[in-house]
Amino acid sequence: MPEPGYLRVADTAAALAALTRYGPSARLIAGGTDLVNLIKEGIERPDVLVDIGRLPLDTVRADGDGLWIGALTTMSAAAGHPELRSGYPAVAEALELSASPQIRNAATIGGNLLQRTRCPYFRAETKLPCNKRQPGSGCAASAGHDRTLAVIGGSDACRACHPSDLAVALVALDAELTTESPRGGRTLPLARLYLLPGDAPERETVLEPDEIIVAVRVPSSPAAARSGYLKVRERASYEFALVSAAVAVETDGALIRDVRIALGGVAPRPWRLYEVERRLVGRELTEPVVREALTSALDEARPLKSNGFKIELARRSTRRALLELRDRGVVRT
Fold it and tell me: How high is the mean pLDDT of the chain?
């Protein structure tokens, strides 16, 4: 395979001009911790790499309304920022439970949100049927190894899970993306960034080919400041989640006033448990109450032959994450 061309740009305008010039055959690169592997594996075959690593989008700042995280901020720099750690602990915990220290030192916030699935059939060294990799080729997971794949939100065309820990925490806290394109900028909720596979799993986000993520904005709230992230995995480090849960709670006296719950490892995108949230508001944060509220969580799931355990694991992980906030004294009851 021929090596792609390389172009380094100094500002957003130059990056957008390059994307306009080269079209869908161009790929943005900064940390490169995922894209370089995809190129080596023959999954991505760009004609040109547009290096945006020197764009001034690597700062974290807070104001009265929330936290602004530049898209080129490294994961380690974001995780260590004092205002992020104090006001949005679920985000800091999700970052620190991701990848390895070496990768977190290079990987960027924007790149992490756009990383591609770790489905073993998508990443296979020997090319196997994968509609995400080669549209129309089929989905080998439907009759193969499916233990780590999605139990909800997938389709017959694709059962891959979204891999980002960070995205789960940000969706729980109602984060928004700011983007730029030749048509101007836009802001959209992160929860709307990711597309379910349907019949076209090769398209994973609503971003256009010439659109760049500029920043992530996380609104401040009492619940965000009382949040946490729980990750269940098969080994202690450098492993993707079997199931994860990001939770945030605000109480009014003994009663829950606001609660947010998002799951990872179960779907093609971070999965909010809106119905569970509604059931918990106005009630006490106790084990029986949480257990009851979670009884029917993921009831609409369609597990494959070997991953049905994720449904109960997700319920138990969510319950544990919520009660740990209470037991740590983070949530006043």
Answer: 96
